[in-house]
Fold this protein.
Amino acid sequence: MGDAHRYIPASDADRDAMLREIGVASIDDLFASIPQSLRLTRGLDIAGPLAESDLVAELSVLARANRDLDGRSQFLGGGAYRHFAPSVVDHLISRTEFYSSYTPYQPEISQGTLQAIFEYQTLICQLTELDISNASMYDGASALAEGILMAERTNPRRRVVVSDAVHPEYLQVSRTYLANLDVEMAPLAHREDGTVDPKAAVAALASKASALVVQHPNFFGCLEDVTALARAARDAGAALIVVVTEPVALGILKGPGSQGADIVLGEAQSFGVPLSYGGPYLGFMAARKNYLRSMPGRLVGEALDADGRRGYVLTLSTREQHIRREKATSNICTNEGLCALTAAIFMATLGKAGLRDLARHNHAKAAYARERIASAKGCSVLHAAPVFNEFVVRLPIAAEAAVAALGERGILPGLPLSRYFPERDRDLLVTVTEVNPRAEIDRLAAELGRLA
Amino acid sequence: MGDAHRYIPASDADRDAMLREIGVASIDDLFASIPQSLRLTRGLDIAGPLAESDLVAELSVLARANRDLDGRSQFLGGGAYRHFAPSVVDHLISRTEFYSSYTPYQPEISQGTLQAIFEYQTLICQLTELDISNASMYDGASALAEGILMAERTNPRRRVVVSDAVHPEYLQVSRTYLANLDVEMAPLAHREDGTVDPKAAVAALASKASALVVQHPNFFGCLEDVTALARAARDAGAALIVVVTEPVALGILKGPGSQGADIVLGEAQSFGVPLSYGGPYLGFMAARKNYLRSMPGRLVGEALDADGRRGYVLTLSTREQHIRREKATSNICTNEGLCALTAAIFMATLGKAGLRDLARHNHAKAAYARERIASAKGCSVLHAAPVFNEFVVRLPIAAEAAVAALGERGILPGLPLSRYFPERDRDLLVTVTEVNPRAEIDRLAAELGRLA
Amino acid sequence: MQPRTLRPPEKLLFEVSRPGRRGSALPPLDVPDPERYDLPAAYLRDELDGFPELSETEVVRHYTRLSRLNYAIDLGLYPLGSCTMKYNPKVNEQVARIAGFGGAHPQMPEAFVQGNLRLMHDLERMLCAICGMDRFTLQPAAGAQGELVGIMMVRAYHVKQGNPRKVVLIPDSAHGTNPASAHIGGYKVEQITSNRKGCVDLEALRRRMADDVAVLMLTNPNTLGVFEPEIEAIAATVHAKGGLIYMDGANLNAFVALARPGDMGVDVHHLNLHKTFSTPHGGGGPGAGPVGVKKPLEPFLPIPTVEKEGDRYRLSHDRPHSIGKVRSFFGNFGMHARAYAYILALGPQGLRRMSETAVLNANYIRRKLEKVYHLPYDSPTMHEVVFSDRNLEAHGVQTLDVAKRLMDYGFHPMTIYFPLIVKGAMMIEPTESESREELDLFVEAMLAIAEEARRDPELVRTAPHTTPIRRLDEVGAARNPVLRWVSSGAPRPEAG
Amino acid sequence: MQPRTLRPPEKLLFEVSRPGRRGSALPPLDVPDPERYDLPAAYLRDELDGFPELSETEVVRHYTRLSRLNYAIDLGLYPLGSCTMKYNPKVNEQVARIAGFGGAHPQMPEAFVQGNLRLMHDLERMLCAICGMDRFTLQPAAGAQGELVGIMMVRAYHVKQGNPRKVVLIPDSAHGTNPASAHIGGYKVEQITSNRKGCVDLEALRRRMADDVAVLMLTNPNTLGVFEPEIEAIAATVHAKGGLIYMDGANLNAFVALARPGDMGVDVHHLNLHKTFSTPHGGGGPGAGPVGVKKPLEPFLPIPTVEKEGDRYRLSHDRPHSIGKVRSFFGNFGMHARAYAYILALGPQGLRRMSETAVLNANYIRRKLEKVYHLPYDSPTMHEVVFSDRNLEAHGVQTLDVAKRLMDYGFHPMTIYFPLIVKGAMMIEPTESESREELDLFVEAMLAIAEEARRDPELVRTAPHTTPIRRLDEVGAARNPVLRWVSSGAPRPEAG
Ligand SMILES: Cc1ncc(COP(=O)(O)O)c(C=O)c1O
Ligand SMILES: Cc1ncc(COP(=O)(O)O)c(C=O)c1O
């Protein structure tokens, strides 16, 4: 069999026959254009080939080297959320026609993907209460960077005001994207209750800015007064960009668009996308219709075929890199299509009532946990502002130490804020979702109470 | 939402609207034909409804109540075998078009299933070296019962001679099927080397029989002299029925058809069908072409369509219950279609060389284990005849006790024959396949050696 | 009009095969390789003649393409009467594959499979509650095997009474497996003709019933989708003569949580988990046909049974009068797990809503079609409705043509030419899985076809026109059966 | 000729939706339900206006039907040039879903994710070995983001040298993401025109190269599928003036295990795991675009990096000159797991055979088509070949028409109108996943189309004829964009 491999049909016999047809003596002749000096003379220094059984064993060993606590007693959030995904979601995205197809450049044989994205765009618009949505961005963080660039494109002021209650990694990524485009990111500090003070926003916006950026619910779990902030932005001629990292909240919270936000973007991993150690995730971006032609990324639109049948196509591609090159609205090409499909199926399966219930349960469980923990010995809830499904707890000891201690007992109590704010070493961001049963919450509160 | 359930589209509103269209006042009116006395007045005494998350949790609890040793260090066989199945097998049978369709009564929209079964029939014929194969039976045991009935149909002698080295459960099931049809099952004892003595077969067949039934490799793992037994049967005007419970063996062993067997049947679970605690499994049946019209079960045949295109259809259905009623060749209707597809994909993926290699590895590992265990203190290999991938070991202590003891150490050393032969309390049937690494085998031998 | 794709139809595995291609590989052998296997050379084959050689890639393409030639429940209404083609919940496929289940070997000691034993035990309890029976065996692999088990228990029961009796009475509307199973059970089958309502003729039964009759095999609702209104009197009549009632439970979807066989005088019956309880049909199985019995038949249940002792579960073979086994091990456990999940997902209310909706949908279809299609029996419809092609005869259009034409409208046809007591029967079972919109689409298609039959019968007679392949010559296929591929080289064994 | 199915086309989710239908349920809430959520009423919405209401059954049907409107790699050749549409091994989908991976939260402490960290660490080592680079970052979510990371590291490097420089040189044959990424990197883009061979014009480069040029962004093999023969001289020229070489590695499938970017003078380059290393394209992503660098660029890698200490793995943020982050957390880990499995499955020989076969297949197609289709550049072909529609012009048939007509033959078209330096480009990349038989079918289709273009150009110009939908009015769609569904009730916001 020579080196015949299961992923490669051509047998040695096939190769020889094809070489004859091509009219060359050997495979090597096909590589004649690579200078001899550059040809690799020895085999690569990597393992394999592995039979499939060994491959599965190898990866199972790696997976077992993780400790996932069977998904129990985890209270981690901070930009990624553990939610239950109905089995139909994975079942449907596992249709090879969905996951093994390319970007739908040829609409006649890609209507499945195109219609699904059109529906996804609609769902995002309904959720955010805005006019338009693109087909996805890499993740919430890069979506923010692109959102800021979009705001600057339509209203160049070389300055944006950004709340410090926005996810730290989102700020980091935005800083990287903006580093060489001379747009200043002016920080806006949150107040003691955990939210941005609209008056402070007014002040910060006084010295011109293209956009005000806030997160809602914000990184500390608190809900912002979006309406007031929108007014502040509008008065200063700036756009309001609302970042959402936990879109489940929009099951009960107003779509920021209806509160005056111009751009709503963020991370939709919560909608059925596996945690998968941080990716692939799903950046989403919605905006008012005036942003249509400066939107980054793919857009799917309705079209009619030669017989007048309704169909869907990639559209307004004159915004994009393959046409506009360096003048494009973004360099994004491959995006997160399958994750958008995942989120759409998740939203469709939960539906109007289901998403509301999901949000209700998340909030109720977090409210319960917050209450229990507030009364735990030595622990205090840091912020007074209302929260959705996460909140900051100040511990009697260093949060890192607390995490280590509870980890031993099979609990991941939350995210130590020191990971992003070294000085806040006793603060723990606790996230509670529908997958945390009351018993887990009670145990968490009890264990936290034992730290003092 | 009333009682709206995720599996049932009709909402309460839909129900009311439809009732109006039908012209009845209430759902109850639709059940008027059930006498009041028979109407259930209280709810059923069962649990549920469960949300999907609770459902998954509930079944995971049950699964965890099993001890599967992560599939390691198991040496169980005796009619069901642990083999590695390439991931493509489960991936492909998970196409809804395959698993959620019915028996292909309407060929124009069932060619996928029909062609796949036609290919399965061909693969079984190639494997057994016989002319025809049906589309599947419930399992190996009922396949034997049906095979004996088939032999009796074509050559009624009210008597079959059956080796006692055939799987005990197959004999039990055949006895049940034959109980009321006055066909005698005359037992034929195996000799000391673990196989059937062809001379003994000749003697047993002297007093007329429609068939001689042997298993190859037999229940004790030993290979029978099929050629000699075929001669014995032919000379007595009886059919030779060869039972195969481990078809992987046919990767290196001759197809019994080429050795003179008239009917080859058995269990094809080994071909990618999950162990799944005993079922669903895959009964197969192949035979010489003269059995065509007395075959039980479905048969798929080639046909041409109105435009002369080649296609496939269920054929020769005049044999079957839906046409022939009590005169049918069997009462089977729903069979094991998806398992047949599974086996076909498994065989196609392994292919000619792959199945040979698989058989080679099974045999080599069993041979190695047999050698190691033969030299283990207090243990002896019971039979001298050549084996494929299982063999009987006589232990210094009761096999049940040995299994309990090694079970504590995370090893399932094999099947105590006492489960079927109370008197053989120290005999253990040890099965070794490609999934048992050498280290497991060495450890098994070592642990068995410690029993003395 | 659009031409059919120009891509040639999918070849057979064996035609795609090329020497030297590999679709799998084994890890290196970690033990010595015995010389030529130290097996008698005479036992060994040289190679698997004709066996395919394909890369993994080609195998995946082959079966993916084949799959797309099938219709499936996830593509639309699948109204095969008597087959109860309902939605197969995806979560059931997931849970059945949990390693603890899928990987459990049937020869494992009981201590290793407590979870599986508990599942089987609890499923049996659930089925008892649903059907009002005292015990169930989960062993039968399908409905027909359940019938056989039932008949054999009936026989064992009568034998214990001193006389096996001779006859099994079966209505002429029954499914073919009923007489076939009775026959293997060693009984003589006697048909009883249905009355004008399509039901058992009680008078005729009274006249015929005698102590040579072992059992009456009844389907309820019967294959016309009609509930036997006199079931109680029927049972009384049979019991009075020492006979038993076997109920074919294939149609249980009509009244789960609304009525119970056990309350109707039924002594023994099977269920089809692959119908009422949603386990997938798999293009022809696997299924599962549990059989429920009343106390008097308990001693005859197949072995083993699952028994609970304290908090442990064990397999009991201690049943001296058992009929034995009809299948190896414990039956189709994978189907048991799915049915268990399905029942729990629905719960009491859900199961009730399931049957209510199934009956609602069938009556909705009846209502919408009865003015156009001939309804041979106008008895109350439960979960399915049976029409005939009488109204189409004038145009030379038959049931088969309607079935084929339905494919052009994107639907799988109904069950046709069954039950046999209806000439040109069209047996429609929508199940509860269908939305009103899907039912309306189907109704429109049926009405359109009736109209086409009038206006352009040829169009209907030559249907289907939109399928990858057209009507196949089934007669020719049976006359000269080709049941396997043979290399054009080798001489093809003209089977038969 | 066969008519199209009479079943109406699939409606939108929102059109199928009916009030009161439920597709999911939550367990009963096990904590007190705070009154109207104790949240400011002003923050709360009444209901999700327009959101769909469907049963699980309908959701499954909707998406299953939609899926069947797509072409896919498992259905046949998918020769999109530059996209490397190869077989996506099923086992990779399985292993990526192993709970330990799929369930791991990115905020978990390192001690909980040693397996994941090791996988990322080992994958980085493998990529270094394959590409001959010193380190890799796995963070970029796709190739374009990899380009951006590369450009930013280049800039950081030059800044550290005291001058960021101004210009990025990019061949006119380059992919659009190259200039777009350079632009976000804050550079001026300058195109360099390709020579008659379709390659970088070394002389022109020598003339232009100066110390204002930060980097030359090169694709190798370039988008014509041609290996840059003078790559060494090119690198020397650029390096001599203190510039760097960025290689767009999208075409790496051409020479894995045969040559390495690191040996060609490349300082930094990205890979597309979703091309060369088989992670599925998902109908438009996710992908992954790791970036490899030589030592001098190491200080600028994004944070965090994965470091091994003894037998522990940790995330290091200690990289003072890092460009920072371009994506949250660690990139598309799920794709890393798949690529890791793919590389191990193939091993050194397999990877070599992969590229050898990819190049073999491309040359086979070139050979079979070059007599009929115009080959604008006859330089040696590596993994893909680019034809033009020149020979069809006479018949008024264009590349677009050929592409659409290919669908009637059951194939996905090639990449068209790219690279821009070829008028009416047809860019064909078969990859190693195709059997000779599949290539022959494609070749036959291409030759048949050329013949049709001569004999019946209208047939080709109006293609496709066999697809569920025909050519769509893309101009109209862009002129009056409808980017979302709105209830016929509500006023449709005429976007834009
Ligand atoms: C009424 C009836 N009885 C019995 C059967 C046989 O059941 P199975 O196919 O599961 O053997 C069926 C289904 O085919 C049926 O419809
Ligand atoms: C040559 C080339 N460069 C860059 C890219 C961009 O890669 P991605 O789509 O992963 O962002 C692509 C693929 O689209 C490409 O073909």
